[in-house]
Each structure stands twice: as structure tokens, then as C-alpha cells.
Amino acid sequence: MSGRYHRPDRIFTGKSRKLKELMLKSDNRTCADCGGPDPKWASANIGVFLCLKCSDVHRSLGPDISKVLSITLDEWEDPDIDSMVEVGGNSYANSIYEAFLPQGYKKPRPDASVEERTNFIRSKYELQEFLKPSLRIVSNKMSFRQYDSVNSTKSIGASPSMKKLEEDTREFVGALNVKVIKGTNLAVRDIRSSDPYVVLNLGHQKVQTTVKQSDLNPVWDEVFKLKVPQHYGPLKLQVYDHDFFSADDIMGEAEVDLQPMVTSALAFGDPSVFGDMQIGKWFKTNDNALIRDSTVNIVDGKIKQEVSLKLQNVESGDLDLELEWVSLEE
């Protein structure tokens, strides 16, 4: 047997195991551009996994736009692996490159013609027609996460009156007003009902809603302000049943990926100068708790995101939230 067929095992050692873990995420098991199954190619600098047909089109764009590598046949260098892991895969990349995909626009399918496939890929990556206009000037060699980091840490002036704000900017990139709207069909933890409340965690911050007595479909409509650190993780939430005589019982949990919101907010700056529009999206996959895709929108000069979650590790229960971006200057 040719040694060629042993190379997949060879590349998945050490640092490249991160690439394999990224490949195994459900949204990376289909082509980022046409949805074809089991992609065996990738664009290292863009950070997406591709089928053979789409990879051929990417290769024709040139390595400055798309550096195409085979998952199984090419030797991956550490910077290429770092670039893929940094982007996070198809869902995150598409939330940027397809943020302005026109309503009703049909992406190519796995059986699309070469012409249809080429037109879409050129529009998406070379012409960048579906990006926010100001992002189109960013070099393809710089990831969007790097772009966010550079722009969110620019000097904002050294005057004494701005010193506190400058310190905050170094530690935080902004804040979120998290509105816990309602729960639906929550799990029973008492005899016939539950007394639910929600706990939110972001970094070292922790907040809690009020307790709703004997209510499996509670409406909270409570808003909490949480600062978003430079090195942020997911917004974690847990639902509990309050009990006076014993430890509170867990009623499910979920996580909210903040990347689509934070990336969109930092890219657009002041949303009040724009009309209502969609500027980002968090895609529903088998690896997250989303009930449906969650879009990031500018609404009446505010950046908002509605999130509907299926609670995890519990027999039933949904939770609806609304996120609103708040700049450090507000």
C-alpha cells in the first residue's frame, strides 16, 4: 500500500490535532460554499472547509485570496493550522462573508454548474459583495478576529479625562444588555410545577433573575448589563428550580456564542448612522443549543440579536433572550 494513504494519520499529531477537532464539528462536515458533504479541502487563510469542486474554484483565485490545502494529502504548517483554528470554521466565516447575502439569494448546491459555483465564490471572497463595505479593505491575509483586535485596541487619546475609558478599553471591548425574556415548557422539578430562575455567567460576572413561583412558562423581561472582556468566552446560562428546604435543582443549561455579536458590533462602530439591516448571523448546528439561526441586526440605531435556545441536559425547556450591544462610551 502506498505511503500516501497513511498521511492522514501523520498530520493529526501534536498541534494538528486541533485541526482534526475543528473538522469534526458538524458545521465543518459540509462545504462552506455549496453544502457538499465530507469536504476534504480547506482554505487556510479564509478558514473554511471545502469540497473538491469548490476548492478548484478557490485555487483559481490565487493564494493571496485563498490558500487551498488538502486535509489528507498536504503537509500543514503551524501558521496555517493556527489560522483555521483562529477563525473557528465554516459557521463563523460565513457569518462574516455572507452577512449581507441578499434575501432570497440562492447559494450553489453540491450539483451546481462550474459557472454558478464560480460566480458565487468570486462574489463572496474576491469581490466581497456580501461583506460590510468597510471590511472589504481588510487584507485577506488578516483574519477578522485579528481585525477586531487591532481596531478595538487603537489609542483613543491620552487626555486625563479619557484615562479611565482607555483603561476600560484595554480590559473590555464593550458591554451587553442581556434581556431574559421568557421560558417555555420548562421541566417539572416539584410535584406538578417548578419555581424557576435563570443565572447568567460571563467571565467573572454573575447575575440572576427573580424566582417565578409555580410557572413552567415564566415571563421575566429582565435586563442585565454585562461587560465583555477582551478575551471573552460564551455567555453561559443555567435555569434552576428554587427550593426552600434543599439545594436548588438544575432545570437545564445552554451557552451563547458571542462571536457573531461582538465581531459585528466592532466592525460597524456607531450603529446610529445606519438604517435597519442584518449585519451578522449565528448559525444553528448540532453542536449548539440554537432552535433557529440567530441574526445580528441594526434596529432603530441599536445592535440587537434575538436568541432562542433549547435547554441542554434536561427533558424539556426553551429560553428566549435578546442581546443589545452597548459601547464603553455609553
Automatic annotation (TrEMBL):
Residue ranges occupied by any C2 domain in the UniProt entry: 157-273
PROSITE patterns attached to this UniProt entry: ARFGAP, C2
SUPFAM superfamilies linked to this entry: ArfGap/RecO-like zinc finger, C2 domain (Calcium/lipid-binding domain, CaLB)
Name of the protein in its database record: Calcium-dependent ARF-type GTPase activating protein family
GO MF annotations, alphabetized: GTPase activator activity; phospholipid binding; zinc ion binding
Domain of life: Eukaryota
Any Pfam family matching the protein: C2
Keywords: Calcium, GTPase activation, Metal-binding, Zinc, Zinc-finger
Keyword Zinc-finger appears in the UniProt entry: yes
Domain Arf-GAP intervals: 16-130
Protein's organism: Rhynchospora pubera
Coiled-coil stretches: none
Keyword flag Calcium: yes
